[in-house]
Structures
1.
Amino acid sequence: MSQSSETAKVNADRNSIGDAVKPDNSSAATAKQQSAKHPARSSGKGLAILALLFGLGGLGAGAWSVLQIQAAGDLTAQQQQQLSNMRSQTAELAEREQQLSKTLAQMPSASQLQQGRELLANVQAEQQLLAQRLETVLGASRQDWRLAEAEHLLRMASLRLSALHDTNSARFLLQAADQILMEQDDPAAFAAREQLAKSISALQSSGTLDRTGLFVRLGALHQQASALTHLAPEFVQGQGQQAQVASGDGAGRWAQWWEQITRYVRIDFNASEQVQPLLAGQSLTQVRLALGLALEQAQWAALNGATEVYQQALKQALGILDAHFSAKDPSVNGLRAQISELQEQKVSQQLPDLNAALITLQAYINTRSTPQEANSEESN
């Protein structure tokens, strides 16, 4: 409702009030005519009451009009606020509509979507074909890798036999190579597997030679030999001889000469064993060095499978012990017993030749790679 309509309504209300007042004036004139007959006091009181009523009615009508005007103003403000909100929403909707129109304009058409679907289907088909080809190539290359691994294992077994004479490690390596050939499930690998089986059987029948154990035991004996000492008695000069040497007579000269002789020659009438030469400090060091060199030479011979050098080095070590150290020493006896035990050990054995198995395996690998190269040339 607008402000002009509210004002017209208020004016209509005022006119109705004025019309209501007019009959009251006529009635008041009639009352005046009748009041002439009554006393003046009662007529004045009635007029006052009547005026009061009229005033209250006017006040009520004015208050009601003011309230109506305020309510109309509040309602108008709310309507204006709602109208502004609706205008802003309408502007937002228009802006969104423009954005949607731009987006729809950028989107492809139905024909373009159909072309895109066809292109995607072609790409997926080509991808599947490429995956199949890749799987085929990888499968073949994986088999080639496994065959290359088998060849490497066979070469490692040959190296272990030739360098370290380690039959156990060589046998395990050959068995691993044979396992790879078995997984190939190819009848053409029969010849290579046959040669590997012969080599494995030869290694199993040749026995086990622990060269590493011999090397370690000889090293321990070398440390024990460096701690040997010769327990020879020392010559102690008596006080009487010192007194004779101190005097200047002929007997003193004779005692001095005898003392010089006894430094080089000694006589033991109670010797029950073969008399060995006494060793000085420097000579004992040299004998220990010679014994250590003999044991080191035996170590080298054990690693290289030189039986003659091994036996000769241990024989030389026993000769040094017998010639320069006393048999009463328990450490010397223990060292001599251990060297004698090691002298009976073998350091060489007949080993099988793995070249035949290696050549057969290489021939099998070449026969597998030749057809693949021919197929690749035909495809090109």
2.
Amino acid sequence: MTLSPLKTPVVYPEPDGSPMAESDPNRDYLVYGVESLKIHFQDSSDVYVSGNLWLSYEQGVSDAAVSPDVFVVFGVENRPRRSYKVWEEQGKTPDWVLEVTSGSTRRKDEREKPLIYAQMGVSEYFQYDPTGDYLTPSLKGRRLTQDGYQIITPNYLENRTLVIPSFVLGLELWLFPNGQLRFFNPQQGEFLRTYREERERGDQEQQRAEQEQQRAEQEQQRAEQERQRAEQEQQRAEQERQRAEQERHEKELLRQRAEQERQRADILAARLKELGINPSDLV
């Protein structure tokens, strides 16, 4: 009986807890890419967004792995993963990839990774150079065809902002003249934000709401003051009307008394005449 040799288990790349060294611009845009796309697709249970994660694309081959800076997979469960193994995900490879290019990754991003991503069937592959030192222009998009990747022709706005549409994401990637990259949602007409930017926006919205509430309360107070002033004016007008009515009434009483006095004087004069007395003689 011969013993077959023990097979060495294949060890696939996994995170070891050590942070990967990145420059500030590369790290910032890696965070922006992952967070903004996570927020954009947060309501889709079958869209997975990640970045700087080991992605193994060939079972049994430990070094058949890449770590895209930002990638999106449609048709898989949206849940946290320690790594992404294509054969454990029904063969689903990323549909969209962004590499944030630096001096150390330029060669791989330009030559090696396009071949790997094309072989994997990544529909769109984008590169972005935040410093503008390695790519001209600093944003480049490729779309997979039967003949391999073809450069996506960019559009330019009047202010020289470069715009590349992503059919896969349903978004546009905008490169501003100052080198800043942003995802733009043409359906909603707004740029995608990170969690921090969402919080800041929420804080600003809350501040605006509080200011609007304060303004509304001030307007309500002013309206209440105006109502009170109007009531006071109405009360003063009613008091004036009552005083005028009282004066008119008093004048009418005086007139009536005067009339009564006149009538009594006439009656007295008539009686005196009946008695043969001339009233004028009594004066």
